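ok so I'm stuck.
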Amino acid sequence: LGQIYMGERIIEIDPRQNPLEYLDTIMHEVLHELFPDEEEEKIGEAANELTVVLWKHGYRQVCQ
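replied:
not stuck anymore, here's the structure
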């Protein structure tokens, strides 16, 4: 659903996701950049946890 260009901090994300999934994909891809040697499962778990916290604190994407 997404990919990051390592070292460039460019993330491509499938825009057909709902807002919560979109946020989770951003978190997932950023964690790949920060922890390139970490296992996919750990990246996914950490992304989910960060997404839940941000969502509970009111993070929402505002489109213009």
